[in-house]
Amino acid sequence: MRVMVTGAAGMLGKAVTAEYISRGMEVIALRRDELDITEFDRVRDVIRAREPDIVVNCAAYTNVDGAESERRRAFLTNGLGPRNLAASCRALGAVLVHISTDYIFDGSKKDPYGIYDVPHPLNIYGSSKLWGERALKEIACPCYIVRTSWLFGPGGNNFVANMIKLGKAKGKASVVNDQSGSPTFTVDLARAIADLSGSGCYGTYHITNQGSTTWYDFAKEIYDMCGLAVNLSSCDSAALARPARRPAYSILDPFPLEETIGYLLPSWEKALARYLEMIKKQGVLI
């Protein structure tokens, strides 16, 4: 089995690459400078030449605020890029796994979003990711669309690492307390992606660690687990005056993930503890 991973230098790309390698598969890990997914001819030529069985698209424009002023760049990477991969995979007969986001929803619900709930993004980033999802469905290549949220893990910039750095440097932090979601450990997500990609049950899936929290309570748990004495205060999203609106509620219902791969991811608290232990052993941050 040959697996191609795009965006392999990113936090999730690294975890996905490591997961497939651990399963004894041949992995073609491509950084952005090796494959820009916005260039259709290049995408087609690389997939033809390397003949992967599975392509996992971890390439994305993820600067939520930046997308408000860089709309074209966001849509090129998050919309056109997946379309290029889907068309090339369909021509070869390869399976595509595409990573999407909870930000395609507007947060107006009071219970978890199901895979068939109607998207309504609040910002350009979410709109560009939804464009990519719809392009895949139009091209109709064999694919899995994996929506996830609030990623943290080794090998990349993330909320957990940033909170630890801020707490150690400043001794205080202010974090929004009016957005709810599910933190997701890239190592756990990568395992589920690998299992899902071998299931043959194509479609849309929601994959996050179990449970939910606010950014404020997430930060509190980080500091409690690290034993860091930090003066932590809460604030409303409006106080930050950020360019992009965020959904107040973006918790994702995992059905039918367990019915497809046989399990759900562990709780975000257990995942956080494992991540902190991992970076502690590596002598990073703590």
From TrEMBL:
One of its GO terms (cellular component) is cytosol. GO terms for molecular function: dTDP-4-dehydrorhamnose reductase activity. Coiled coil: none annotated. InterPro entries: dTDP_dehydrorham_reduct (IPR005913), NAD(P)-bd_dom_sf (IPR036291), RmlD-like-bd (IPR029903). The keyword Aminoacyl-tRNA synthetase does not apply. Residues 1-278 form the RmlD-like substrate binding domain. Catalyzes the reduction of dTDP-6-deoxy-L-lyxo-4-hexulose to yield dTDP-L-rhamnose. Belongs to the dTDP-4-dehydrorhamnose reductase family. This is dTDP-4-dehydrorhamnose reductase.
